[in-house]
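User: ok so my PI wants both of these folded by tonight, can you help

Assistant: No problem, let's get them done. Here's the first:
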Amino acid sequence: MEIKKTRITINNHLDKLQEDLMKQINELEEEGTSKICQLLSSLEKKEKEIEECQNSILNIKKHTTDLQMFLSIKQIEEDVYSKEFCKLQWTFHNESVLKTPYGIDVDNDGNVFVVGHRSNNVVVISSDGKRHREILTKDECPCCSTCIVECHKECRDIVELDDVILNAKTSNALFKIEETLVEVAENLQKISQHQHRNLSTLKEKRKEIEKEIKETRMKINNHLDKLYEDLMKQLYVLEEQENSNGSSNVSLNEANRTESPQQTHIYAVSCRKRKADYSFIYD
């Protein structure tokens, strides 16, 4: 009876451990799934924003003039880079050189070219943001015919505005924006696919762990069953031995108490003989 109670106590304890462990695993799975779903939702939102930007650029290139395209590149840049698609690498702030940045472009070496609206110049900044150089002064910036007459009488080699805006729709700045959007869209797609795989892997891992826990519990139960069976066999053997020893002792005692007539006669003869011996001594 005591062995059965102990076995029941062990089973209850193991059931509680298994239940708590499965509960923790389910909570971890739900937490991980929730985080992945939130990330996927955010990625989907960013992908839609990129698609909208790409469609906007296509519409602008299709329906605007070269001048409108030239003047709108700055706004396109602000719209794209304000979406937080890119990570901030460095900042440049020096009003003695650059005031009211208006346009930006990047070459293949990572150098950044910035147009200063109020400073009327173009400044190139190194890829690490630590060095800069003015490559276009205010006397070389675009201006209207009135400004040319009033402020640039001595200037030579003036370039027509039509020539400046001629390739606005195929400019390097616009190409960089489009290239950035494509690259970011591809990266977001890769991240999304990776997170979907993580979601599937998370579910598979949870199933594997649950299966392993059940198999381990089954092995423990089988081991306990074997121990219980062996112990009960030993108890039965001991009980049979005790019963056998008890029966032998009882039979021996009963045999000692039961005397045959021959044994009684021998005992009487022996007593008389001893008495005759004693009489011989005293006579």
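One down. Here's the second:
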Amino acid sequence: MGSNEDEYTRMIPNETNLPLQEPLKISSISFCLGTTFGISLFGVFVTTNVYFALLSRFSMFVSLYHMLEYTSVAKFNPKYLEINSFMFNPDGDYNFVYAMLFSIVELTIECLIWPTFKKNIVFNTLGLMMVLFGQGLRTGAMVSAKTSFNHYIATSKEASHKLITSGVYKYERHPSYVGFLLWAVGLQIIV
């Protein structure tokens, strides 16, 4: 056996690129996301306060999104599995995190200024349908593409690349992007 440094840089023998120290981080993130989802789901059904109900719904859908992003890569393309597969910082500049924080600030201000607007059943139903359809479309894209899907934009064609024309790709050329757009807009309508 080599030095301690060699031991820590070995890869897990399961066709992923995860260093040995990553499972603790991943399990901690997964625990936090699962706990957030569970508490949020409980909050959606229990609270009578409009603000907390909407905040719970927001937290539930955001945590579900991150769990499904990681799980889809782990299941269908483990070669590209890494801690960034949770998609907390997809652009590298934390713009996604800032957008989520801004959404919470926006929700707080709207609930203080115009609380009855947030009770509109038409907008809530429309937003909910967009979120669910968008999440389904995005996750369906990962399932349909399997090993051809990853979170990185390819700048050149590799030998392993192939055009996917089955599953959701049969109906939409870029279902992952369309799904995320529907999810994000729907979430903003809800919130």
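Confidence is low (pLDDT under 50) at residues 1-14. Residues 105 and 128 are 20 Å apart (CA to CA). Good luck tonight!
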